[in-house]
Amino acid sequence: MKTDETNSCSLAGIDASCRVPLLALFGGAAVWLVLGLLLGLVAAMSFHKPDLFADCPFLGFGRAQAAANDLLLYGFALPAALGVLLWIFARLSQAPLALPIVPVVAANLWHLGVLLGTAAILVGDSTGHLWLEYPRAAAALIFAAFVLIAVSAAATLGLRAERELYPSHWFLFAALLWFAWAYSTANLFLLSGHPPRGVVQATMGWWFANNLLFVGLALLGIGIAFYFLPKLASQPLASSGFTLFAFLTLVFFGSWCGIPQSAPVPAWLPAISAFAAMLSLLPILALALVAWHTIRGANCACAGGPFCFIRFGTLSFVLSALLYLSEFCPRYSRLLDFTWFGFGVTQWQLLGFAGMILCGAIYEILPRVMAKALPHPNLVKWSFFLFFAPGVLLYVVPLLIGGVEQGLKLRDPQVAFASANGVTLLFLRVSTLGQVLLLAGSLCLLLNILTLTVQWKLGLLKTVIDAVKAPLERESASAALGGAESASAALRRDKEVKA
Amino acid sequence: MKTGCTVFLAAFVALGASWFGLVRGPLHQLGGAQQTLTLQAAENWPPQRTGEATLGLQVYRKYGCAACHTEQVRQTGVANELALTSLGTQKAADFKDFLKSLMVVPALMNYSNTILGNLEGWNGNVPVTLYSGDNSSVVSTLADKLKPVGVKTEALVVARGADLARGWGVRQSVAADYLYDEPLQLGNLRAGPDLTIIGLRHPDVAWQLQHLYAPRSQVSDSTMPAFRFLFEVRQKTGGRPAPDALALKPEFAPAAGLEVVPTLEARQLAAYLASLKANAPLYEAPFTPVTAAK
Fold first, then answer.
1. Which end of chain B is more exposed for a tag (fewer CB within 10 A), N or C?
2. Inter-chain contact A57–B188, Cβ cutoff 8 Å?
3. What is the pLDDT of residue A473?
4. Which residue among B3, B26, B180 places its CB closest to the CB of A265?
5. pLDDT of residue B5
6. Can you tell me the distance from the alpha carbon of B235 to that of B260, in angstroms, rounded to the nearest whole number?
7. Interchain CB distance below 8 Å, B63 and A63
8. In this complex, do B70 and A338 lie within 8 Å of one another by their Cβ atoms?
9. In sequence order, what are the residues at sequence separation of 6 or more whose Cβ sits closer than 8 angstroms to the Cβ of residue B5?
10. What letter does residue B126 receive in the DSSP assignment?
C-alpha cells in the first residue's frame, strides 16, 4: 500500500523536485555554451586576419581561446553534466532530490565563478596554467559550488530504495570523486603562494587535465549515456560484467595517462603514460562493445531526437578517446605533438562527446522536469542534422587532418616553418565553418531552454496573481507570499497541482 | 560492485595511485631542484633572470603567448662526430690514402664506407666531418690513429633532431632549464615557431620590439598578430625621435611627425624573450658547444 503510494507520486514528483535546480544549471550552461563557441570563433579570427585585434588586448588568440576552452569545460560541460547527474540519481533512487535548494545556490555560485574567471582571463589575469586559467577566487567559487552539488547528489543517492548500484551509478559516483580530487589538488598546488618549481607544475597540470578531460568527462559522459541508451533503445544494458571491467580499467589505467611523450621531464613519466595509454585501450573497446550491443537492433527511430544526440556522442567518445590515446604512442607523438591535432581531439572530446551527450540528455530531461513539451521541438530535430552533427565534423576533422599535415612538414627540417604553418590555414578556415554551425546549434538549445524558463516563470506569476486575487481564506495565499521564484514555493505548488 | 562503498574504494584507490605516481612522484624527485652545473664551463644553470625579464614572463602569461608558441625542443638522439680541423703538413691526397689504409683496423672496418664517403669530392678544406654516428669507439680509435701523423682532429657530441636542425635549439629541453619559470609556459601548439633559444636567434631587443609591433616588417610571411597595443604612438618632441623609438621600415611606420615607443610591458616582454637561451651542455643533455670547437 505504502509503496504504491510512493510509486504513484514518484516519477512526476521526482521530476518536479529537480525543476528549479536543473533550470538553473542548464540555463547557465546553455548561455556559457553559446558564449564559449562565440569566443572560439573570435579566437579563430586571429588566423584569418592576424591584425584584427592589434589594438584590442582583450580578444587576441591567447586570451580568447583560453576563455573559450574554459567556458566549454567549466561553463557548459560540467554544470550541465552535474544537473543531469542529479536527475539520474533522483530517478534511480526513486526519491525526490534531497536538499533541492542546495543545487540552486550552487548553480548560481558556479555561474558566478565562471563569469569571474572568464572576465579575469580576458583582462589578462589568467594563471597561465592550461585548463586552470581561472584565478583563485573563481576556482574557489566553482569548487564550493561543486561540493554543494555533490552533497545534494550524495544525499539523494542515500535515499535509494534498492541498495544495489546501477552501472550508471558507478561512473557518475566516481566522477564526483574525480573532479573533487583533481581540481582541489591542482588548484592547491599550483595557485598557492608557493607553487612547485619548474616542470613539476607541468606534470601536475598534465595529470589534472588528463583526469578531468579524459577520465572525468568519460565517467560523466558514459555514466549518462549508459542511463539513457538502454532507456531510449528499450533494451537492457548489454553486459554488466563488461561494463564493470571497463569501469575498473578506465579508472585504474586512464588516470595514469596525460604526460606528453616529448615532455622535458624524467623519462619514466612519459614512459608510464605511454604504457597506461596502451592499457586504456581496453576500457574504450569494452565500452564501445557494450554500447554497440545495447543499441543494436533497437526499434528506435532516429529523428534528430535525444537518441541521435547520445548515440553520436557515444561514437564520438570512442573515436576521440582512441585518437587521444594515440598521442601517447611515442611513434605517433613525434609527429602529432605541438600540432593542431591535439587541439582537435580536445574539441572533439568537449563538443562532440560531452557536448552532444549533454544536449541529448537535456532535451530528454527538460520536458519531463517541466511537465511540458519542448517549445520548439522542430528546432531540436533540425539543429542535430543541420548544425550539431555536421558542425562537430566540420570543426574537428579539418583540425585533425591539418594537424597531421603540419606534423609531417614540421618533421622535415628542409621544409620552411612558414610552409608548415601555411598548410594549416586552409584547414583552419574550414573548421571555422564548423564553429559557426555549432554556434547556430547552441543557439537552438538556448532558445528552447529560455522559452521554457520564461513560460514557467509566467506560469508562476499567473499562479501568484490568481492566489492574490482569490478570497483570503484560501490557504494558497500563504504560498504566494513565499515569492514567485523560490524553490520551495515551486515545489509546494507542484504538490498542490498533483493533489 | 553492489554497494557504494566498493565503488568508492575502487575509485579512491585508482585515483590515489595515480596521484602518488604523477603528482607526489615528480614533486619528490624534482620539487627540491636547485641550480645545477653546466658541463665543461661548470657554471650555474639556469642563470637567474634579470628583474625586467622576470616581469616579462608575466606579460607572456598575460597575453597567452603560450597558446601559439612552445618553449621546448625535442631531439631524436646524440651523434658522436670526429672533425678534421687541421691537416698540419700533410697534403689532402696523402691524408686520404692514409685514411684508406687505416680501414683495416677492426674497429673501423665496418665504417669504411661511411668515413671514406664523407671525403668523396673533398678538396682539402677544413674543418670537415670524418665520422658522424652513434658509435663513440669509432671516434676514439680514429682520433688515436690520426694523432701520430700530425693532423688535428676534434671529437664533438652533437644533438640531432628535426627541431634542432630547424635551428630552434642546440639540444633537447630538460627539466633543469625551467627552474625559475613561474608559471611554467611550455606551450603545446606550434602555430608560431618554438622560442627555446629565441634569445640566441634574435639577440637584438630592437628586433624583438619591431617584430611585436609589426611582425611582417621582420618576417615577411609571418602569421603572428601585431601587438600594437603594447606600444604608444605619439608626437615626436622637437621633431626628433626619442632614443627608444622604433626604427621601423617606412611601410610600417606611422605618419610623419609621429613615433612608436614601446610601453613598459613591451620592454619587459622583449627582455624576457632575450633571456630565453637554453644553450648550456648539461649532464642529462650533453653536446659540444660550437663556440668551443672553433
1. C
2. no
3. 60
4. B26
5. 87
6. 9
7. yes
8. yes
9. none
10. S
CA nearest A259: which of A317, A213, A209?
A: A209
For an interface test with A, give the residue of B186, B216, B217 to mutate (most A CBs within 10 A): B186
> Can you tell me whether residue B174 is helix, strand or coil?
coil
CATH class of domain segment(s) A1-164: mainly alpha
Domain ranges of chain A: 1-164
Cβ–Cβ contacts within 10 Å for residue B293, how many?
14
Question: Do B174 and A421 make contact, defined as CB atoms within 8 angstroms?
Answer: no
Q: Determine if the peptide bond prior to A96 is cis (ω within 30°).
A: no
Distance CA A167, CA A384 (A): 28
8 A C-beta contact, residue B225 and residue A42: no
Q: What is the ipTM of this complex?
A: 0.92
CATH level 3 topology of B77-160: Ribosomal Protein L30; Chain: A, (3.30.1390)
Residue B2 has pLDDT above 70, yes or no: no
Q: What are phi and psi of B82, to 5 degrees?
A: -120, 120
Q: What is the CATH number of domain B44-74+190-274?
A: 1.10.760.10
Distance CA(A220)–CA(B168), nearest Å, equals 41
Judge: B190–A410 Cβ closer than 8 Å, yes or no: yes
Nearest CA in chain B to A50: B225
In this structure, what are the phi and psi dihedrals at residue A440, rounded to the nearest 5 degrees? -60, -45
What pTM, to 2 d.p., does this model score?
0.92
Structure-block grid coordinates of residue B86: 687541421
Residue B31 touches partner A, C-beta closer than 8 Å: yes
The answer for B 177-196 residues in CB contact with A (under 8 A) is 177-193
How many contacts, defined by CB atoms under 8 Å, are there between A and B?
Answer: 227
Helix/strand/coil (H, E, C) string of B13-67? HHHHHHHHHHHHHHHHHHCCCCCEECCCCCCEECCCCCHHHHHHHHHHHHCCHHH
Nearest CA in chain A to B178: A198
| Angstroms from A150 CA to nearest CA on chain B | 14
Question: Are the beta carbons of A207 and B22 closer than 8 angstroms?
Answer: yes
DSSP A343-394: HHHHHIIIIIIIIHHHHHHHHHHHHHHHTS--S-HHHHHHIIIIIIHHHHHH
Residues above pLDDT 90, as percent of chain B: 68
Contact predicate A420/A447, CB 8 Å: no
Return d(Cα A93, Cα A125) in angstroms, integer: 43
Residues of chain A with pLDDT under 50: 1-9, 477, 480, 482-485, 499
Of B84 and B292, the one with more pLDDT: B84
* Domain spans in chain B, listed from the N-terminal domain onward: 44-74+190-274, 77-160
- Return the residue of A nearest to B285 by Cα: A264
Interchain pair B7, A174: CB under 8 A:
yes
Inter-CA distances, A232 with A11, A104, A225, A363, Å: 17, 28, 10, 13
